[in-house]
Predict the 3D structure of the following.
Amino acid sequence: MLTSVSQEFRKFSRHCYTLRMILKDTSRSLEDIQCNLSLGEEFRENFRKENVIGRLQHMLEECLPAVLVFGQSCHVKATFINYMLDQTILPLNSSGWRWVRLSYGHTKEIRLTLMHEYEILDNLQAHQRPWVTVPESDLKRTEQESTADSCQALEIKLNSAFLKDKVNILVPPDYPSECLSDTLKDLIHILPVIIYVVDESLNDCHIQEIRIIKEAYQDLPILFINMTKNGIETLSPPEQPILRALPHLKNDKFSKKYILLKNQLINLGFIRDNVMNGGEFTQPFCTEYNNMLSNDYEFNDKFVIFVRHTFKSYLLNMSSKLSMIHNECLKNFILRTFDMAREIQITPQRIKYAQITEAGLYRALMEIAGKKQEELVRIIQSTLHDMKLNAKQILEDYYCEEMDGNNSHQSFTKPVSTEIQQIILNKLGNAVAIQLVQSVGCLHENFTGTLQRCLENLEKNCKDQDGNVLASDAVKKIITAAYSIELKSSSSFSIAHSFMERLRNFIHSFQLPWVAHSQQQYDFSWRLQTVTNMLDSLSSSKLAKTVSAQFQEVVRSSHEAFQAAMRSLEHQLSGKLERMEEQRIAIRKQYAPRFARLALESTSLCDLVQWGMPIQSKEIGRGQYGVVFACEPWGGIDPCAVKSVVPPDDRHWNDLAMEFYHTRTIAEHPRIVKLRGSVIDHQYGGGFSAAVLLVMERMNRDLYCGLRNGLSWLIRLQIAIDVIEGIRYLHSQGLVHRDIKLKNVLLDNNNRAKLTDFGFCIPEAMMSGSIVGTPVHMAPELLSGHYDSSVDVYAFGILFWYICANQVRLPYVFEQFLNKEQLWTSVRRGLRPECLPIFSKGCWNLMERCWAADPEDRPPLGEVQPILEAIWYKATMDTSIGKIIKL
Ligand SMILES: Nc1ncnc2c1ncn2[C@@H]1O[C@H](COP(=O)(O)OP(=O)(O)OP(=O)(O)O)[C@@H](O)[C@H]1O
């Protein structure tokens, strides 16, 4: 038995070694991302905050597993340890122990250390004479060792089979329970397997001690071991009810004390009733359920199970954390490449849109300026005419207002010419401005909203990249300069104001004779006359021309400013897009495969620890890259199949890792074969070449096999619908399968189909234009490297040909080719499978549409499915009518 415990330690250290390698690679890869990619800061920040990597490094690189022995007394602890080591190494009747550590050594050795590190030269009894059992006095704490800080440790090295595989046994000093928390703080460098040895019911001190241990090691289970001295004890009659209350124990040979102790532990919530009889644990991380109690009769078995389970908890905990990091990184990469692909595609369109829209705006504004000139003349004429007619009223109103607001004396002493000019300019300016504001307001609606958003988006990306806002400033200036797009009352006023300024300048430039001298006093009739003269002297057409010219000038200069800003923006963006494309390629070719491989390794380790190595039986299929075997139920999947792949080189490892990631991460779907997990078999090929075992649900056969044996028309149609559903699902997840073919459609016992083999399946954004697939199913554009998800529609067209033909022979027109190059040349020229006499018009038509040369001409799958369903429905009706006629 105890060799089984050693084996568990050995297995654990092997897994830890694998984890250490993965962890090292992960840290290197994360550093690499940090240096070379401008993405993922957010999620790295998360890992940093929680310090996942740091904690894993600590666990894997600085900690050693050890059996940590607590107990009710030194006596029980000694009994237990002696039993484990199969020798009386510790004295049974002693107390007041200091730290004791037992580990493997070629020869027996004993020494005293401070905090397990510095040897203390001490006159140990064991050094004075030969010993079998450690002298009591060497174990005993001295008076100076009264606290956890000052406690020394007795290091004992033994040549024991049990300790050989780096099994360490550690016994904390038996301080009172109040000191235990401090003692446990010293244990930061071990991964404990926690044992609590008892030989009688627990008192308050023990209970307190156990609570402290539970608190300190929340994620870990405790194995309570009841060491009995006298073998089987029978229960006295008053204790019978306890046994009856625990009926499942009736048949076992348990001591009286054991039953009582068990009852107490259950009542205290330290163990659960239902796991006490041993067996496998079901819930790896939940210690409440996993604490165990064992007596010395069942100890051998339970101890191995317990050690295995504790190590399983450690390994699952560490590997799932690593796997989480890898999968998060990959998810982030894929999302980022989606964003990048979109950005790369959309930015030139945005620039084009901004240029076209601004050009339209410019044309419209210039047109307005031209057209408005006549309108402006009319407006100015009619305003002047109105003013002439109402000159007296205008003056009276003006002076009334002046007198209401100020003192009349002052207003009559103002320079009269300035006042009158002001009145005229106000009236004219307002009339002209209102007109322009209305026209521009209408343009604002048509152009500037979307244009502005588009420009903001372009400039935002530039800001992201360089913190450079020049383009944005220029664009904003263009919009405001071009037409003060914010046509609210305040800006309308500013337009009016600016036109009045221009008009004033214009009037001044005439140097009219009626410009009055300052301080001159004038009567009302003189003022009226002056107004009339002024109004007569203004040329409405000249005024309109000036307004219009100035208007055009503003528009033109703004347009030029816009174009200059756009050129600079374009320049910045093209640099940014180039860098983005480089990063996209780096992610696709380098980082995503690297993390996919790490994810495959960490997730496979999780699966191996949790479910063990899958047990393969007979071969059920063989592909280009792997062999598929039937397999014993694994991970809750029954029936099960294992695809065993031995990637010959890094490229194949990467492809397989990406396949694994995509298959594993897409949510379950009835039309997709479920991948349950994976395991890496490092022992494969004598340990020279690792094999990856992908474990999935086992199907009955593939469609190739189904068609070769013959399937009814209705079943074949249902399979076609299933395939379309499967592809639609993949596309909805942003994935392209790229290898739809008969052997990748698997059938269950009811001939319902599911898609499998995601070796070439890839997110659309990560596609690089690699030429992959099976020759006859490959769309012509695949060879050019520029393609999208519609290659799956093409492949379905060919698959549907086989489905309708109900056979697996190549189409006749393809049979003649000697190699795939000849086939592709002809397919590129438009050669397609021949129409067989059994094909209905509807089916042939659908095939032809699916394999159209131009991807744009292929129907969306959302359209294909109802067509197939209609054909299926008709076939069902025909079949039932046929049956009725036969009857
Ligand atoms: N889950 C499964 N259940 C039952 N049979 C399967 C399963 N997976 C694969 N097979 C059988 O094993 C064969 C080989 O499958 P595999 O995925 O290795 O290769 P392939 O798709 O035929 O070819 P390639 O390796 O070129 O993609 C399949 O054709 C199928 O008959």
